Amino acid sequence: MDSYAHTPVTVSDERAVVVGGTSGIGQAIALGFAEEGADVIATSRRKAAVEETAQAIEDRGANTARVTCDVTDGSTLEAVRETAEDAFGGIDVVVASQGAISRESVLDIDDEDWDFVTDVALDGVRRVTQTLVPAMEDGGAVINISSLAARLAMADVPAYAAAKGGVEAFTRASAKELAPAVRVNAIAPGFVITPQNAETYAEGTEKRAEIDGRTPLGRVADREEIVGAAIYLASDAASYVTGEVLTVDGGFADSAL
Q1: Which is it for the CA torsion 215, 220, 225, 229, positive or negative?
Q2: Is 253 part of any domain?
Q3: What are phi and psi of 151, to 5 degrees?
Q4: Taking a C-beta distance cutoff of 8 angstroms, is the pair 226, 124 a contact?
Q5: CB 152: neighbour CB atoms within 10 A?
Q6: Per the omega criterion (within 30 degrees of 0), is the bond before 189 cis?
Q7: Any idea which residues carry the catalytic annotation?
Q8: Are 7 and 235 in contact (CB under 8 A)?
Q9: How far apart are CA 183 and CA 200, in angstroms?
Q10: 173 occurs within a structural domain
Q11: Which of 140, 122, 19, 11 is nearest to 79 (CA)?
Q12: What is the CATH number of the domain that holds 99?
């Protein structure tokens, strides 16, 4: 019988930067990587959030460094790269999980709100890639966080939907250009409970009932349930995976209306 080697799904000993890694899904990924044995830098615009998450990373036995970052300002991303090079000697994994949203209709959203959302959620991914990938060695992995809004019609989030659609297109384009040295993939989470939306998705609300009723797995996700997908895409187990969008939505996107 043929013998097939199994490549472990792990990020142990990897050097990771999670941009937007101090809240929501990004924080769950940063802490999940740390628990798996990776060294992790989690960035945010807020110094207090960086300190809090860095302490949580250290509490899990991982190495980290503290640096703030605003993805609309390329110079702060250069500081992240320099910090990672000084602390870790380089970067193996980059996760672009920063986000912004504006809840306005197609006809009502103005230039200021549109530009802010796309500057953070789409242009920010470009800046993260352009600034941090040069610090990566062959075999590196980039993971961009997308959304179901990239391919499902959702009302009142046109800038967010357009930005996330752009993230998926940019993921495929950069995967083509950066191969074979660096793999680039995206994760498209479904409806996930985070501290920011816990009230909206609380048990007993109309929104929660609507989502649970349409989702084949019958519930919204906890943010920790996105971590496994990120670990897989960052690991050598995904060594032949690039340019893909991994949907983690409990079957929501493909269920019948």
Answers
A1: positive
A2: no
A3: -135, -5
A4: no
A5: 13
A6: no
A7: 160
A8: yes
A9: 35
A10: yes
A11: 19
A12: 3.40.50.720
